[in-house]
Fold this protein.
Amino acid sequence: MRIALFATCIVDAMYPRTAQATVSILERLGHEVVFPSGQACCGQMHVNSGYLKEAVPVVANHVHAFDTKDYDVAVAPSGSCVASVKHQHPMVARSCGDTALEARAAAVGARTYELSELLVDVLGVTDAGAQLGSYFPHRVTYHPSCHGMRLLRLGDRQARLLRSVHGIELAELPEADQCCGFGGTFSMKNADVSSAMLEDKTANIRSTGAALCTGGDASCLMHIGGGLSRQGSDVTTLHLAEILASTAEAPASVTGEIRVATGKATR
Amino acid sequence: MSAREDILGRIRSALRDAPVAPQIPRAYRTSSELDHDALIHLLVDRLVDYKARVCVLDAAEVPERIAELLADARSYVIPAGLDPDWTAGPHFAPDGDRRRVDSVSAPLTVAELDGVDAVVTGSAVAVAETGTIILDGSPNQGRRAISLVPDYHICVVNAADIAGILPEALRRIDGTRPLTMISGPSATSDIELERVEGVHGPRILDVIIAR
Amino acid sequence: MSTFLGMPSLPVFGTGNLHAAESFPTAAHRELGNAQLRANLGHATHTIRDKRLQVVSELPDWEQLRDAGSAIKESVMARLPELLEQFEQNFTARGGVIHWARDAGEANDIVAGLIRDTGETEVVKVKSMATQEIGLNEYLEEQGITAFETDLAELIVQLDHDKPSHILVPAIHKNRTEIRDIFLREMPGADPALTDNPAVLAMAARAHLRRKFLTAKVAVSGANFALADSGTLAVVESEGNGRMCLTLPETLITVMGVEKLLPTWQDLEVFMQLLPRSSTGERMNPYTSLWTGVTDGDGPRNVHLVLLDNGRSAALADEMGRSALHCIRCSACMNVCPVYERTGGHAYGSTYPGPIGAILSPLLTGIESEENSSLPYASSLCGACYDACPVKINIPDILVHLRSVDVDSKRGKKKLPSQMDVGMKAASWALSSGKRLGLVEKGLPLGRLAAGPDHKITKLPGIAAGWTQSRDIPAPPQKSFRDWWAKEHHGPETGGTNAPARGTARADAHLNAQDKEDGA
């Protein structure tokens, strides 16, 4: 099928490899990926910060970029951005009384999927190792982001995909369902509470002995990774798209010291 | 304008978008499939979980058990309408002034109630799933104060009065009577969430399930 | 169906203990510094959390009960005027007396007057959020009336001249040793050999209050539910202090928010399953008392009910926020909230802490009251509260809604826009066009330069300094994904700029407006 990639602004600007990995996975499965170039951002930062008026053009831009017949489904490697597209966009359009935009936003939202949701529910990927050649011989722990878990109800889709990666050793994260404390502008407006939440999250990550923490949301991973980096930890973060895209021939590049599942440290 | 008119006016004005009251989806369980023995078994399990003391007896054994339980009580109170069979017979022969009977026409004072050691009542209905006994102030249970002030409550539940789940039980009750739902002895978890049984209400609850 | 005929009145907001005196971040900063508090809270919230999950998972129809509970409450709000009148009629017909109070001051006056009519100067109290909200105890004290809290935790808090920090377990912020010390210091006749064993402490409270219960002539309570079709009131409790207060005195005065109604007796079967499991994590709480007006020979002879507005009608007027009034005060939301767990209840500055407090307090007082505008931001929007709420109040959505009410209330009022205002406006410009975002991304190499050889940015200015207080920012990449796609990935382009504009005139207008500002 023809799949439109919604890269999301943070991945586009800060983590292009996550989007490249997404493209690579989808092409490997034989699908055609298109990139609507008018896209920018889902606007959740504005909505969640109370700047509804400022969110309107951002949402309108997204709807405009994706309300085309040029693709079958859209995908984004981010649970919170997909949740915004599905749940917030029609509400933002309604807030300014634009019923036509509301209808279009709802239509775009209906065919927009989070990556693991698309892979499992639409493209029938149940075994990443067998179907994608995913190979990642490292000890990894996984943080399920709040919006994927509670707004999109992704359940164990991401964990199941990760578990099926060849060579991976998945370490259970204690209190995995607890928020990492990012919360968009919450991390700045309520920096103290956010930091206290982050401290507990990183302590739990470190307790697993994993070399990496993965997840489905670049923003949460940026938050967690930023905390680990500040604490001087060698543990890094890597989006699950990059783990799924990693193969024996073309392994994902990871920075920092990585403890290979066999126990050997590599650089 | 009176406060009443004012408040009702404000509320009506707050609702000027005329929200429509939704249909109530009642897809939850309203009856249970448990048989007689299973109901008794479940109720016992739940009451024990609350640290209540429970026994299951044939109706004929009830008076003897009550007498045993009251052996150490210097005095006890019963409602005037308590099933006479429960506190009759050879076990209660020398009862004399240990027994205080409370009635609407001759109620005990609060001080008198505070002076008795125990209370024996019947019950209106019980809920097996939640371990709850409901008193509705009928003659065999008496007024609310008598099952509250004494420190020790002996409560007889007829097996026929056990409902499986709460909706079944509430449908057997007249909601306008003074009701007390009891699930175990009084308890608090206010200190470090450590449950302590026995605060202001009775500290000991003995339930006799009469088959 | 009630239609409003006449002039709509402006929302009239609530008064009393609903206002944060300092902003949430300021209060949170202080509370976070209290290690003992954090340990107590962490232990307590995790304990209740696990118990709740356990008893909720036992019920095969939990979600159906939630659906019913949510619909019943929505129905109550839609039909509130008629239900209040129906309740009033039934309650009055059975010998109860109804009083209406517009706000905290009026409610306090009514209660004090009723107590004065009895000639008593002491009352016993059942734990009640509504009387906390209106500051009844303090008011009665000014009037020469002593109110004795009889719930163990409320007693602890009252003896310590402190404030509750939790709806369900008001002394959750104190541990056993602190409580023993309070008893020794403040409880007349406390045994000097008192240990800090909770059972021993509970017995001390029992001994302390017993005489009060047995001699009290007047009691004051709140109510968990009021049934419109019968005029019945319900109090849900654990210790038996509620039963004592509701049964033994001659006069009973209940203070209740107007939103606590349920339409029918049948509805109780839903809420008496939802409430105990959600609040204490029990299948059923030890005691629930229900009374319908006055019963001859059983319980108080004088039964009063004060129906309280105090901002509830204002909350009801907010279409997006009104479902906050569905709250049954179970406290499940605060027990799962990662923010509450770390700051405790005092940081919220209101009788209603935690996620529900963050929406309810500003709805009752208006967003512009004191520091209450900071409350809707006291959340990472993780959504745990919404999942836990037995009546499915969408707290995250209402938080976001109230943030926009706050932002809009400040527009044009300030001489200078805040850093956040400026940043959001700039971001709106950059993020509402692929082309403009692409332009901004051309600056990524500058970010790499700023990051230096460590490949991380450790200090940012202004509001972003909040981020770098505990987190680094990785060095940005050499180029954006967009650039890579255009230059290195030969995929067909679609939509957006190359596609014919199929947007509605309005959607295009949003974009064009941005372009104009841009001078494009």
Notes: Confidence is low (pLDDT under 50) at residues 256-267 of chain A. The first helix of chain A runs from residue 9 to 14. Residues 135 and 247 of chain A are 5 Å apart (CA to CA). The two ends of chain A are 39 Å apart (CA to CA).
